[in-house]
Amino acid sequence: MIRMSPRALVIAGALVALGVAADQWTKQWAAARLPGSPMKVVDGLLSFEYVLNRNAAFGLGQSLPESMKVWILIGLTSVLTLVLIGAMLRSTDLPSQIGYAATVCGALGNIIDRVQLGYVRDFILLYYQEHRWPNFNVADMLVCIGVGVLVVLGGRQKKDQPASQPQSSAPKQ
User: Fold this and answer.
1) Is residue 161 part of a domain?
2) What are the pLDDT digits (tens) for 130-146?
3) Nearest to 102 by CA among 117, 133, 81
4) Number of folded domains that form the chain
5) Given 23, 43, 113, 122, which residue is catalytic?
């Protein structure tokens, strides 16, 4: 059952569309500008370096057969995205709605890449000296932000909304 108000549903839909558009635009920019010529943004900390990610987050899925990998990853992320959309539609508090919407944005952005290209385009690189974080993209950032919001702020009741009281099995007098 949908619990989001129509207004919240429109806002969530707009945020999801905006997030997916930002992710896809930045990936298009990276694909046109960065292959073969990485860009230092903050020396010693942040660069833009275009890579093709044929695995899941942090290289997971490397051992899957190539012929099945894309379809397994598309299937798993699609099912997870549908679960997240369902949770978003049932959520009643704004932080949860924002957290789910951001997570859905990221998941959809990477699903689009996998369906269209068979891989995900990553280009943001954080590093310090010889330590490198795996390259990522805007969709990955949205997933992390969304999950962070859900963990820290999600599931809280609005101040003017009383928590549901357990029903007693005793008859009312």
Assistant:
1) no
2) 899 999 999 999 999 99
3) 81
4) 1
5) 122
Distance in angstroms (rounded) separating the CA atoms of residues 76 and 60:
13
Structure tokens at 57: 């987050």
The residues that bridge with 124 in the sheet, in sequence order, are 48, 136
Residue length, the chain? 173
Q: Which residues, in sequence order, are CB contacts of 57 under 8 Å at separation 6+?
A: 134, 140
Q: Which of 23, 43, 93, 140 is catalytic?
A: 140
Contact predicate 91/3, CB 8 Å = yes
Q: Give the predicted TM-score (pTM) of the model.
A: 0.80
Question: Tokens in use for 145?
Answer: 């932000």
Which residue, among 155, 151, 60, 146, has the nearest Cα to 107 in the 3D structure? 146
Is 93 annotated as catalytic?
A: no
Q: Which residues contact 69 (CB under 8 A, 6 or more apart)?
A: 54, 55, 61
Query: Is residue 23 included in any domain, yes or no?
Result: yes
Residue 164 within any structural domain of the chain: no
Q: Considering the domain boundaries, does residue 167 fall inside one?
A: no
Task: Note down the domain range covering 27.
Answer: 6-153
